Amino acid sequence: MGSSPRIAGFRVVMSWPADSAFAPQSPPRGRARLRLAGFTGVSLIAFGALAIVIAVLAQQHAPAPAPSAAGKIGPAAAKGPRLRQSPPVSVAIPAIGVQSNLLRLGRNGDGTMQVPDLSTQANLAAWYKYSVTPGEIGTAVIEGHVDSYEGPAVFFRLGALKPGNHIDVTLADGVTAVFRVTGVREYAKAEYPANVIYGPSDYAALRVITCGGTFDSTTGHYLSSVVVFASLVSSAHT
């Protein structure tokens, strides 16, 4: 993440207007200056501490999946529909107010999955181009950031989804694939079940992934991942 101070994943920036009562003032002459200097030093420490407390209390926390939302990772029905191959161009998740065009990302040089640029693309989701296209038989993967250097990112509220919510993915051929959420879970990255999340499936599966859990300021990474499991239930032509 960045080198700026962060609390639970967000930078804390404190400032005040030039005409604020807390802004530095021209000191008076003589002993009065010494008394005021002492008072100002104590005041700035107090106000600085108060500002930090306010910043901590005011920061936003991404919602974690509720235990009742764990649901299941399998399909909503024994045999669901399927769509032909067509690259996805956008994703919408009405329940949490997400509407995003989709980037197409692959792998880094070390084999790890690429993610959107945190500085310029934090509000964009991405389709992992080495997964199947959404709606095909197999596992399609969409990812995005939970927050950025400026605050909430595209999947900030992903953990608030519940089984039964819909995820709509518009494809290049004009078809919108409609997925129903079957489960929402949080996994510690140290125990990440990659085979369960990315492994092959015999139905049209979708995984939507972001970071979650505790933010480790030492490494600049979150310690967990939020994973939404969904399956194709219908489609529509746009």
Describe it.
With 238 residues, this protein is α+β, with helices and mostly antiparallel strands. It has helices at residues 31-58, 194-198; strands spanning 6-7, 10-11, 88-93, 98-105, 125-128, 138-143, 166-171, 175-188, 204-216, 221-237. Strands 3-4-5-6-9-10-8-7 form an 8-stranded mixed beta barrel. Strand 7 (166-171) and strand 8 form a beta hairpin.
Annotated CATH homologous superfamily of the largest domain: Sortase
Major sheet details? 8 strands, mixed, barrel
Structural class: alpha+beta
Report the portion of residues in β strands: 25-35%
Q: Could you estimate the helical fraction of the residues in percent?
A: 10-25%
Distance, first to last CA: 38 Å
Tally of helical runs: 2
